[in-house]
Q: What sequence folds into this?
């Protein structure tokens, strides 16, 4: 066990004992490894750096048939995307499509940013449209021209207009929108029925309005014996931010102006939104301290009749084989046009060092193929931004996806700022405040004040752009 | 032990005999081999690969860090950015979050270092008393340490989960009507993470202590026993003082490791709830990678680096002084 100095059997000039035979072997091994490495390097150089590692070192964009595609889709979304990629490969056997998936949020954006800065970007990448101001503002995205779009049959009139506008920066198109994914309400239809919340045709009664919604939750709580509705509030600031932003926008409030340089918070509206959020937990209708998988489990195990979450959880709920439906996030306040938090995925062409590396034509062809396959994407819950799919008969009949399609009309995107967007500091900080109000650790008035403080601090921070 | 003792006395007591471990032995052996001149390059040659990586991956980035702290360096743009002088330092030192995150690192260090040193010693003392089946305890206490932090985090996220978690069930079993939300309550979150960390990493300190315990010669125990010292007295007056060096080592390693905490917190709470568990490194990560303010994040890392260095140095100085006095 303990290593002793090799005293016995190693006289200094004597014949080498059995153990020392390892020395030449090791040297030979090193020599062999070195030779192997050299051969590999030479081979790599000769074959035009076919490997990803070789390309990483040389900056070579690989053979012309290669198309690199990066995305942050795991879980259900990831499975759908793999399906769509398979479809593309089948129809384009000459293209070597290489799809790489990263972890959602800032790890993904950090990698995309650094790869583009280092002149080794993928040809096509997914981004949230809420990130366009940051990415385009840093000059990382290639503009997409009208003629290029026309050449691939992707005119402005064929896209959902809200998402289309969001894909622009500085008057130029930087992304091609793939979908809109709003914050919605999941309903357990069996529980709603028992709670007397459904009409004769099985449709859910009107839950819009502050009191109506609370009444619906109370009725559901009666049935479940535990909770009315669940929402992820532990370790999920983004979801908490979506709840706050949906309610606050329904009151017509704005948070930021001048691309995030100015704070224009409406304290009264923020206080009112928080007061409502607090009522959900004060009356024990919504649990606190549940994380994202926990919130879904509460719905699928029948301990909650409703769930407030993003549309992308549809597959998780579907997998549990319970009777459920999905609706747009209820309209609680009527002070402003209907609003619910939403974001969109878009496809971008990160700026490449040369047109040869960019392969814009092939990339756009690939994007078009994804759009054409977006009925598969819609199956994963996202509302397709590609109108031929959105207006198709098949999508209209897709249940429960079609039930909340109207939510994209009220899509309230993140306020524009370098510190906003998917997984951003804005989400983290404001979401934390909202979770604190939800949990009763911060009063609604104090919550509004804290949001103003957080925003002022962010707005005063020098922009990295 | 029994077999090595006679052979070592039988070894030739020549002038070349290695005086101690490692260095002395190597020197003695080299002197006896032919080709001494060429061998002058053996040590530097063998160090070169490590030296290269040390320069490229440690010293290089450290210099970059030092420089970037004086610029408004951005993640989303190439180059260093605009010169801002000491602005980043002024901003960091006047930001409440910076101090809060430092405090969280220190609080975590206090919560983990004390049990990780004391418990590891106790467990090692207990294990050492087993003559049979010692391997089992050695394995059992060390086993969690080989698990990656992601596995630990996932496991404990389930254990600490609300409504369905094991920890809440136990708390209810022991009579608490409404157990706290372990990871969802700002007052409990850090304690919960620290508890998970103690369970996970205690094996390392435990093994060091166990090795040190075996270094204590049997004769000392026997002599003390002959003088009438009971087991407790032997532990207090002989074992613990003789473990002094091991304790110094364990404590310093633990302090440094705890101050650098990141993985399990990033995965278990993400710094929440309400930023109650955001340690300094997570603050660096958030400002550097989420917000893209690399210059500012460099400043904060440098401050943290200096702080850890100072704490280690002060601790070493204190211990050395205590050792000299005794």
A:
């Amino acid at each position: 066990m303990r290593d002793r100095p090799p005293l016995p059997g190693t006289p200094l000039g004597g014949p080498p004992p059995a153990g020392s035979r390892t020395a030449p072997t090791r040297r030979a091994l090193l020599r062999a490894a070195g030779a192997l490495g050299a051969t590999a390097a030479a081979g790599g150089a000769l074959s035009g750096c076919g490997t990803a590692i070789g390309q990483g070192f040389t900056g070579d964009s690989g053979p012309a048939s290669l198309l690199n595609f990066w995305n942050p889709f795991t879980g259900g979304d990831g499975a759908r995307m793999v399906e769509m990629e398979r479809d593309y490969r089948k129809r384009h056997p000459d293209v070597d499509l290489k799809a790489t998936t990263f972890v959602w949020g800032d790890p993904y954006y950090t990698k995309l940013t650094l790869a583009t800065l280092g002149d080794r970007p993928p040809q096509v990448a997914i981004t949230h449209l809420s990130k366009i101001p940051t990415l385009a503002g840093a000059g990382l995205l290639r503009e997409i021209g009208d003629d290029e779009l026309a050449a691939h049959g992707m005119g402005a009139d064929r896209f959902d207009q809200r998402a289309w506008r969001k894909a622009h920066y500085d008057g130029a198109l930087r992304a091609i929108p793939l979908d809109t994914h709003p914050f919605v309400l999941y309903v357990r239809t069996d529980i709603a029925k028992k709670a007397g919340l459904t009409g004769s045709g099985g449709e859910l009664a009107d839950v819009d309005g502050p009191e109506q919604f609370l009444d619906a939750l109370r009725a559901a709580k009666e049935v479940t014996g535990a909770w009315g509705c669940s929402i992820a509030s532990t370790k999920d600031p983004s979801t908490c931010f979506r709840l706050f932003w949906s309610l606050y926008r329904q009151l017509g409030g704005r948070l930021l102006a001048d691309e995030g340089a100015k704070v224009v918070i409406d304290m009264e509206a923020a206080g009112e939104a928080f007061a409502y959020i607090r009522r959900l937990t004060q009356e024990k209708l919504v649990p606190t301290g549940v994380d994202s998988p926990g919130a879904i489990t509460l719905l699928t195990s029948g301990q909650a009749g409703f769930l407030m979450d993003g549309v992308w959880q549809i597959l998780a709920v579907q997998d549990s084989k319970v009777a459920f439906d999905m609706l747009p996030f209820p309209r609680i306040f009527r002070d402003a046009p209907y609003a619910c938090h939403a974001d969109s995925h878009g496809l971008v062409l990160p700026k490449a060092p040369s047109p040869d590396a960019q392969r814009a034509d092939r990339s756009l062809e690939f994007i078009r193929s994804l759009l054409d396959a977006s009925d598969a994407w819609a199956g994963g819950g996202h509302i397709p931004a590609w109108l031929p799919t959105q207006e198709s008969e098949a999508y209209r009949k897709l249940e429960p996806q079609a039930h909340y399609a109207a939510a994209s009309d009220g899509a309230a995107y993140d306020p524009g700022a370098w510190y906003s967007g998917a997984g951003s500091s804005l989400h983290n900080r404001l979401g934390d405040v909202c979770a604190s109000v939800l949990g009763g650790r911060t009063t609604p008035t104090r919550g509004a004040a804290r949001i103003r403080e957080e925003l002022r601090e962010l707005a005063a921070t020098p922009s990295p752009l | 032990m029994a077999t090595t003792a006679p052979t070592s006395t039988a070894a030739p007591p020549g002038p070349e005999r290695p005086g101690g471990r490692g260095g002395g032995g190597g020197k003695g052996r080299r002197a006896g081999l032919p080709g001494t001149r060429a061998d002058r390059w053996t040590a530097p040659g063998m160090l070169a690969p490590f030296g290269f990586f040390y320069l490229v991956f440690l010293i290089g980035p450290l210099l970059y860090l030092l420089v970037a702290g004086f610029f408004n360096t951005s993640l989303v743009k190439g180059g260093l950015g605009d010169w801002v002088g000491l602005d980043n330092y002024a901003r960091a030192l006047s930001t409440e979050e910076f101090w809060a995150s430092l405090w969280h690192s220190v609080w975590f260090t206090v919560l983990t270092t004390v049990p990780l040193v004391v418990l590891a010693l106790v467990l090692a003392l207990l294990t050492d008393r087993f003559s049979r089946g010692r391997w089992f305890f050695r394995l059992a206490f060390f086993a969690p340490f080989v698990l990656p932090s992601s596995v630990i985090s996932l496991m404990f996220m389930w254990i600490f989960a609300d409504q369905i978690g094991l920890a809440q069930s136990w708390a209810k079993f022991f009579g608490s009507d409404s157990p706290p939300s372990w990871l969802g309550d700002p007052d409990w979150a850090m304690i919960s993470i620290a508890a998970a960390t103690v369970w996970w990493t205690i094996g390392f300190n435990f093994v060091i202590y166990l090795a040190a315990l075996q270094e204590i010669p049997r004769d000392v125990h026997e002599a003390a026993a002959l003088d009438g010292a009971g087991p407790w007295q032997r532990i207090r007056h002989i074992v613990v003082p003789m473990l002094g060096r091991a304790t110094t080592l364990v404590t310093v390693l633990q302090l440094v490791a705890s101050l650098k905490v990141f993985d399990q917190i990033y995965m278990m709470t993400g710094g929440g709830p309400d930023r109650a568990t955001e340690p300094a490194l997570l603050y660096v990560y958030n400002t550097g990678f989420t917000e893209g303010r690399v210059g500012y994040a460099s400043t904060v890392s440098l401050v943290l680096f200096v702080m850890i260095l100072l704490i280690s140095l002060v601790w070493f100085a204190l211990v050395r002084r205590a050792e000299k006095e005794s």
In short: Chain B touches chain A through 47 residues (CB under 8 Å). Residues 89 and 227 of chain B are 61 Å apart (CA to CA). Residues 1-32 of chain B have pLDDT under 50 and may be disordered. Residues 96-128 of chain B form the longest helix (33 residues).
